[in-house]
Fold these 2 entries.
Entry 1:
Amino acid sequence: MASEIITLPKIGLEKETLLAQMQSYRGDDVPWHENKAWSLVYHASDEHTELIKAAYNLFFSENALNPMAFKSLKRFEHEVVRITAHLLNGDKNVVGTMTAGGTESLLLAVKTYRDMARQTRKIKHPEMILPESAHVAFLKAAEYFDVKPVFAPLDDGFRVDVAAVQKLITKNTILLVGSAPNYPFGTIDPIEDLGQLAMRYKLPLHVDACLGGFLLPFFEKLGQPVPLFDFRVLGVTSISADVHKYGYAAKGASTLLYKSMDYLKYQFFVSTEWSGGVFASAGLLGTRPGGAIAAAWASLMGMGESGYLSLAEKTLATTKKLMDGINAIPELEILGQPDMSVFTYRSVHPDVNILAVADRLEARGWHIDRQQKPESLHAMVNPGHAEIADVFLADLRDAVDYVKAHPKMATSGTAATYGMIAKIPFRGMIRENVLQMMMDMYGPDGGTLNLDAEAQGGIAAKAGLWYLKWKNRLERWRQRRR
Ligand SMILES: *Cc1c(COP(=O)(O)O)cnc(C)c1O
C-alpha cells in the first residue's frame, strides 16, 4: 500500500477521477464475474442485477429504523416475510422479520430462545445442541449471548446423528438446530427426526436454511427428492433463509421466520426510559438500509416462480455435471451425498495433497475455498458456473496430475501452511496467531489487508516452532497417561 490515503483531500475529487480510482482498487479482487469464484457472490444475470440496483437506489436514503416513518419499507418487509413463509410452507400464523444477513438471523434466533427459556423456564445456564456442521455464526451467537454450544457428531453421510443429539439433551437445553443444507458439506440434517425429538422434549428447533431457503423449494418443484425441512415438519419452530444468497437480492437481506408470535415476541427489544424516547426494535441493528429491503422485494417479484425455477434447473444440472466430473477423477471424491448445490471434495490418493491442488488451481486464476476437518475444497454452484464447468473440470484434472507428479508441492506454499494449521493440536495457539493477524489487519496501517501467502507463512512458521517445542512434552505426557 504505497500510496495509502490517510487524510481527506483538500478539495473533493471530481466524480470521474474518483470513480476511476475506485475501479483501480479492484485489481486483486476475487474474479467472480468470470465465474472463477466458488463462494461470496450469488449472481443470477446482469439484467437481474440492474433491476435490483434500480430498486436499491429508489430507496437508497430511506431508513427502516422506524417502520412507521417509511410505510413503504414496512410493506416490503412484510411482503418478503409472507412470500418466504409461503415458500417454506408456513401457515398464516408464521411471522418474522428481515435481517441484514444470515449471521444476524442466527444471532437473533439464539437470543430469542435464550430469553424465552429465561422467562418461561428460568434457565440460567443455557445450552444449545449444534450439529458439528452448523454454521460458525452459531458459535458467534454462543459467545455474544453466553449460550453454551454442545456439539453433536455427524454420521457417515455427514448429517447430524440424531441419537447423539438426544443423548446431549439436558435440563439446560434451550434449542435444537439442524441445517438445510449445512455450509461445509451441503447435506441436509434429518429435520423430521429432529422435529420428533423437539416435540418429545418440548424444545424449540431452528432450521438454518440460509443457503437452502430460496433454492430447495424450487428443487422440489423440479421433482428432485428433497427431504422435508420446512414448516411442514412438526416441531420446527423457526427457519432462517437468506434472500441475498439463492434469492439473488442485494447483500444485506435475510429472513428469520417463527411458527408464531409466541416465539418472535422474545426477539423484540423495548426500552421505555431513554431520554431519546420510548424505543422499540425488532432486530440487532438501529438504522437499517431501505435499499437492501427494497431490493429483496424487487428480486423476489422480478424473478417470480418461473425465474427461480429456471435458475434452479440450471444450478442443479451444473452441480450434477461438476460432481460427476469430480467423481470421475480417480484421485478425488465428493464427501457424502450433497442435497443441493453445495459440495466438498477431497483427495483419496496418498500422493495428491488436495491443498496443493488448490494452490495449482489458484495459479490458473480460480478462487478456491479450503476446509479443514477433513482437508478438502468447497464449492457453491451458481447458474453462471454452467459456462465454465468444462474448463474447471479440465483445470482440476490437470492440477491433480501436476500435484501427483510434484508431491513436494504439499510442503510448500499455502498447502504447507494450511496443512500445518490443521494438524497442530493446540488450537489456542492458532487462535492467538489469528487474533494477532486481525490486530495487524485492523491496526493503524491496515496491515496486510488479507490472509496472503506471506501472512499465512508467518502463522505457520510460528505455529511450527511452537509445535516442535511442545511436541516432546506432549508425547511424554501422553505416555505417562497410558
Ligand atoms: C451463509 C450462511 C450463513 C450466514 O449468513 P451470512 O449472510 O453470511 O451472514 C448461515 N448459515 C449458512 C448455512 C450459511 O451458508
Note: The longest strand covers residues 173-179.
Entry 2:
Amino acid sequence: MWPTADLRSDTMTAPTPAMRQAMAAAEVGDDVWGEDPTVRRLEERGAALLGKPAALFLPSGTMANQVAIHVHCRPGDELICEERSHVYCFEGGAVARLSGTQVQPLRAADGFPGRDQVAAAVRADDPHFPRSRLLVIENTHNMAGGRVASVARVRALCEVARQHGMKVHVDGARLYNAAVALAVEPAALVAEVDSTTLCLSKGLGAPVGSLLAGGEEFVAAARRARKAFGGGMRQAGVLAACGLLALGEAEERLAADHRRARELAAGLAELPWAKVDVEATETNIVMLEPGVDDVEPLLQALERQQVRAARAGAHRIRFVFHRDLPEDAVARCLAVCRAFRTGVPA
Ligand SMILES: *Cc1c(COP(=O)(O)O)cnc(C)c1O
C-alpha cells in the first residue's frame, strides 16, 4: 500500500519528531496565571513577526477570529466581509451566537471586495441601521482558492475602513502563505490593521493553536474574552513549543507547498475537461472544477489511489498542500485525473 496523500486540508499534519521532542522538553507553567514561559516566548515571537505590540495564543483560529470580533463589536453592530469568508460561513454562526453581531457579506470573485464596494456597504448613521463596526479581510482567501491580497490592497481597504470609523481584522489563518507568495514580511501585510490571526496548525504544521495579535489594549481585552470563551489553557507550553518550531521553518516549508500546488494546477490545466486557474493558484490551494454534475466519482477514483481531496461545493474539488504528503502526491493526483473520463484506470 502507498502512503495516503491527504490533500483535504493543510490541517492534516502530525507533529514532527522534533516537535514531539520539543513538547517533551518544554518548560511550562500555568498560562492562565501568565506563568508559562514557552507560551510567553511564542506570544513575543508572534507579536514581533506580525509587527504588533502584543499577541495571544489561542486553541484555534476560530476562537482567535471570534475573540477579535467580540472585542471589536457590540451587539447590534455589523461587520463587513466577503461572502465566502471563514468567519461568516465556517464558524458555526459564532458572530451571531457569541457577539450578537450581524454580517453584511459582499461578493468578490477573488475574495477581496474593492474599496468602493466596502464604502457603499457602510451604513449611514441613522437609528434604523446597525453600526458598521468592522471590516474582516481573509488573507489568503480559502474558498477563493488561496488568493492573496497585496500590501497595497490591504492598505486601500484599511484606508476606506478608517474613513468610516471602522476597525479592520485580518483572518490570517494562512497569512504566512500570503507573505511567502508575495515575498514580503508577514508584518507588512498587517501593518495598518487593528488585529490579525495566524494559524500555527495549518501549513505551518503545528498540532494545535493560533495567534491573535494587535495593540496592548486590544490584546488585554482579547485575553479576557479568551477566558470567557473557555480558551484559557494551563500548561499550554507543550503546544506553544511546537508553534515556535513551526515558525522557525515556515518560509521554506510554505514555498515548497506553493511550488507543488502550481505543479498540480499546471498539470490539471492540460486536461481538456478540467477548469483550473493556474495563475490564480498563488499559494497552497488548488481548486478544480471537473465540469461534472457531481464530483463524487472523481473523489472516489482519487481515494482508490489513496489520494484524498475535499469537496468545495457541488462542482468543485479542493486540494491543499502541506508538509505531510508523499513525494509522488502530485504525480498520483495527475494520473488519476488523466484517467478520469477516459475510462482507463490509473
Ligand atoms: C482553518 C481556518 C480558520 C480557523 O482555524 P481553526 O483552527 O480550524 O479553528 C480560520 N480562517 C480560515 C480562512 C481558515 O482556513
Note: Residues 57 and 211 are 5 Å apart (CA to CA).
